[in-house]
Design a protein that fits this description.
The protein is of the alpha+beta class. The chain is built from 13 helices and 13 strands. The strands form 4 sheets. Strands 8-7-6-5-11-10-9 form a 7-stranded antiparallel beta sheet, covered by helices on one side. Strands 1-2 form a two-stranded antiparallel ribbon. Helix 6 packs parallel to helix 10. The radius of gyration is 69 Å and the shape is flat. The chain starts with a helix and ends with a helix. The SWAP complex consists of NPM1, NCL, PARP1 and SWAP70. Keywords: Cell membrane, Cell projection, Coiled coil, Cytoplasm, DNA-binding, Membrane, Nucleus, Phosphoprotein.
Length: about 600
């Protein structure tokens, strides 16, 4: 059944390639050629009349896929046996479909590499038509290809591509996966040769079921000589060729559950030996190094273990597990969707029940509203009757209140006249009392005015005396002011004279300072000359101590060193300066 499914995928590509106008139908003449080629490649006896007899009732035009499938199953796939070259079969189908679908414009790979990717696509695609490869299988293939090229898998790049892919679709066709690999989207930094070698390695593993391949030395059975061969390990055999191009096959080592592989010690100048023991023969083989020897032994033991357990190749088993897992997830998803639909249906039923209850509640509410309206109408009528009775009672009460108000008004007028008479009597008494008080106040004011006039005359006399005193004081103040002005003028003149004397002293001080600076310059020049002379004498005559005359009197010491004059000279200078200072003051 697995063989039929794999063959159908390649035949589907060929059939769709013959469907030029994409109508889902192919002419019978093209189907004859396709059927003949399929029978030839798969080594099945071809019956040219069977196709005509099968479609003899369908003379209107082309044949659809559904019409061709019964013939394909009955006359071709039911007769097929696993004794033909699958690569020739795949290449025949590839030749039909690649001419129509393969776009070679931007591809970095050859047609041979594109064919290998097409075969890998058929192996990894789902058993649903039209054929497509899902995201999980795309990642599996790209991981294998990256490992075969010796690169590192970048998870983030594929995640970004997966997000981009999910916005469009969840899978790729064969030509899209060829374009994806051929344009170098996931092989940046790799050259074309590395990419081609990686595709070939993945093709050998997944399609040709090659577990391991490489050069080793094999010991002959007749001549017992050692010859280098290219070995190819498959699940049930080890084939060896003259070279890696597989042009000349030298033999096969058939494997089964009874075979074994063991390591051998070095002998006959050969190292890294091991032998494969089968039921009829044993084969001695020499690897290039210990690492490859161990890898070959482990790979052959893996094949033998799989044959004992009756299990397929690991990549086929993992593919089956991935499919079963996807099917399980899909079944769970369908079950979940079914439960969601059931819940939705139950929810809709609940909604209908709630709608029916709502309608009942609305009807009950309408009935209650009608009953309330009737009660309200009855209550309104009763209120109208009560209002009429109240209006009549109100009118009777108003009439009685008017009569009471009229009597009250007459009584109030009488009491008002009595209060007015009492007020007039009280006002007359108050007026008489005020008149008596006014006369007493007038007498008091008259006496007060007489006393004020006397005080005014006394104050006037005092003011005249104060005025006279002020006149005398002003006269005295004028005289003092004139004397103060004279003193101020004298002081101003003295101040100006002092300023002039100060400026003269400043100029004298400046002259003395200049004389002092000249003397200091002369002293410094003399000291420099003396120092130069001493240096010369010491240089020419050795260590000589000059005897200098001492000072005749006590020398004055200043902050800058010995002074240029003695204390006596300093006292004379001070006396001279004091006389010059006093002379301008006496002149003034």
């Amino acid at each position: 059944m697995a063989l039929r499914d794999e063959l159908l995928k390649s035949i589907w590509h060929a059939f769709t390639a013959l469907d030029v106008d994409k109508s889902g139908k192919v002419s019978k003449s093209q189907l004859k050629v396709l059927s003949h080629n399929l029978c030839t490649v798969m080594r099945i006896p071809h019956d040219p009349v069977a196709l005509e007899e099968h479609f003899k009732d369908d003379d209107e035009g082309p044949v659809s896929t559904q019409g061709y499938m019964p013939y394909l199953n009955k006359f071709i796939l039911d007769k097929v046996q696993d004794n033909f070259n699958r690569q020739d079969f795949n290449r025949m189908c590839w030749t039909l479909c690649a001419r129509k679908n393969l776009n070679r414009t931007h591809l970095l790979i050859s047609d041979e590499d594109a064919f290998k990717i097409w075969c890998i696509f058929n192996f990894l695609s789902e058993d649903k038509y039209p054929l497509a490869i899902v995201t999980e299988e795309i990642e599996y293939f790209l991981r294998k290809l990256t490992e075969a090229m010796g690169g590192s898998w970048v998870e983030e790049r594929f995640e970004d591509y997966k997000l981009e892919l999910s916005t469009k679709q969840q899978c790729l066709s064969a030509w899209e996966i060829i374009t994806l690999v051929g344009t170098g989207t996931f092989s940046k930094g790799m050259d074309r040769q590395t990419l081609s070698m990686g595709i070939t390695e993945v093709f050998h593993e997944l399609i040709l079921d090659v577990f391991k391949q490489g050069y080793m030395m094999k010991k002959g059975h007749k001549r017992k000589n050692w010859t280098e061969r290219w070995f190819l390990l498959r699940p049930n055999s080890i084939s060896y060729y003259v070279s890696e191009d597989l042009a000349e096959k030298k033999g096969d080592i058939l494997l089964d559950g009874n075979c074994c592989v063991e390591s051998l010690p070095d002998k006959e100048g050969k190292k890294c030996l091991f032998y494969v023991k089968c039921s009829d023969k044993s084969y001695e083989i020499s690897a290039s190094d210990k690492k490859r020897k161990q890898e070959w032994i482990q790979a052959i033991q893996t094949c033998i273990s799989l044959l004992k357990l009756g299990r397929p190749a690991p990549h086929r088993e993992s593919r089956q597990k991935r499919r079963e897992l996807r099917q399980k997830q899909q079944a769970e998803q369908e079950e979940l969707e079914l439960r969601m639909r059931e819940l939705q249906t139950a929810n809709e039923n609940k909604q209908q029940e709630l709608e029916a209850m709502r309608k009942k509640l609305e009807e009950a509410a309408a009935n209650a509203a009608e009953e309330e309206r009737r009660l309200l109408q009855t209550q309104t009528e009763q209120q109208d009757r009560y209002r009429e009775d109240l209006e009549r009672e109100k009118m009777v009460r108003q009439e009685m209140e008017e009569q009471v108000a009229q009597k009250s008004t007459e009584l109030e007028q009488y009491l008002q006249r009595v209060r007015e008479l009492e007020d007039m009597y009280h006002r007359l008494e108050d007026a008489l009392e005020e008149e008596r008080g006014a006369r007493q106040d007038e007498e008091t004011v008259r006496r007060l005015q007489a006393r004020l006039l006397e005080e005014e005359a006394t104050k006037r006399a005092e003011l005249e005396q104060i005025h006279l005193h002020q006149q005398r004081t002003i006269s005295e103040t004028e005289a003092e002011k004139q004397e103060l002005a004279k003193e101020g003028t004298a002081k101003e003149s003295a101040l100006q004279a002092a300023m002039l004397q100060l400026e003269q002293l400043e100029s004298e001080r400046q002259g003395a300072l200049e004389q002092y600076q000249d003397v200091m310059q002369k002293l410094e020049d003399a000291a420099n000359n003396t120092r130069t002379w001493k240096h010369k004498v010491a240089h020419h005559e050795g260590l000589v101590r000059l005897i200098q005359p001492g000072s005749k009197g006590p020398q004055k010491i200043t902050n800058w060193g010995p002074a240029a004059f003695t204390d006596a000279e300093l006292s004379l200078r001070k006396k001279d300066w004091q006389e010059r200072k006093n002379r301008p003051a006496q002149t003034q």
